Amino acid sequence: MLLNRIPVRTTILRSVLVRSQLLKSTPVFAKRCLASTLIKPQEVPKSTANESSTSPKKRPLSRVAIGGTGSAAKYASKNSVEFAAWKAVMLLLVLGGGATYYFSKEKERLRIQKEVESKRSYGKPLIGGPFNLIDDNGQPFTQENLKNDKKQFSIIYFGFTHCPDVCPDELDKLGDMLNELKSKNNIDLLPIFITCDPARDSPEIIKEYLTDFHPSIIGLTGTYEEVKKACKQYRVYFSTPQDVKPGQDYLVDHSIFFYLMDSEGNFVDVIGREADAKEGVEKIRSHIDAFIPEAEREKRKDSWLSFLYK
Asked: Mind listing the pLDDT tens digit for each residue in 154-207?
């Protein structure tokens, strides 16, 4: 009767009264089972409430499997973007530096080429041309011996074996330049010594004279007329005293220059007495680096980059 008088809304109180009556009318063991199985109405476990109201706790990175969680993917994505940006910056720096170096070097090559071409722009070269002499072994030697397919340049010096000081000094400098070019730049020149005193400088005398200098130097001589013609081709001034008697000692005045010739037998540049061996090496090296064969020069004139070579 008491339960009927309780309002419907007091559901919680009713359930408590029912539970208390059941416990009084049952044995002790049953009371324990009933107490453990009955759950209070509308009671939510604390663990469930906490899980629904708060986000799950993040595990330490050391406990996260590779590729298993969104947070790991987030960190990996961030690091990959930073690494890609670093690589892009380094790539731009390398490409920019390489392009700057290439174009500066190419600009210098074009400058040298135009300078050399200006010396050939009036038809026949002003310096150089056909000659017909013999070497220190008595074999013929002409301007054709200057031409080769190895892009080997020649360097020519005019002098005479009885020269007391200038010629030995210049030939020593030539040896220093040859050694420097070979050791540091792997460049082999064809060095040539042409006498201005054919009356006294036979092939045998020239060969013996050149043993005191670089072993690769080739000595040339010939008749007076052939030597004079060769000197004229290279614009070399020389003179001998008049009325010289046989066996009489004398000096020969001559120009003091090294004449640099390319592998096609064309004049490139001169190296004067005022230039030391280091300056001579630098000039020779720059001309060899800038050298382009005539056939290739003609092709460039017809290419779409022809404006660069005008």
From this structure: 999 999 999 999 999 999 999 999 999 999 999 999 999 999 999 999 999 999
Q: Which residues pair with 197 in a beta bridge?
A: none
Q: Which residue has 């045998």 as its token pair? A: 204
Contacts 24+ apart (CB under 8 A), 21-29: none
Q: Which residues of the chain have pLDDT under 50?
A: 1-6, 8-9, 22-23, 26, 28-31, 33-45, 47-53, 61-64, 121-123
Report yes or no: 216 and 174 within 8 Å, Cβ to Cβ: no
Cα separation, 61 vs 71, in Å, equals 9
Domain ranges of the chain: 11-50, 75-118, 132-309
Q: How does pLDDT run across 14-48, given as a tens digit for each residue?
A: 555 555 554 455 454 444 544 444 444 444 445 44
Residues in contact with 298: Cβ distance below 8 Å, sequence separation at least 6, in sequence order: none
- CA distances 110 to 18, 99, 180, 232, 266, Å, are 110, 16, 25, 31, 18
The CATH H-level superfamily of 132-309 is Glutaredoxin (3.40.30.10)
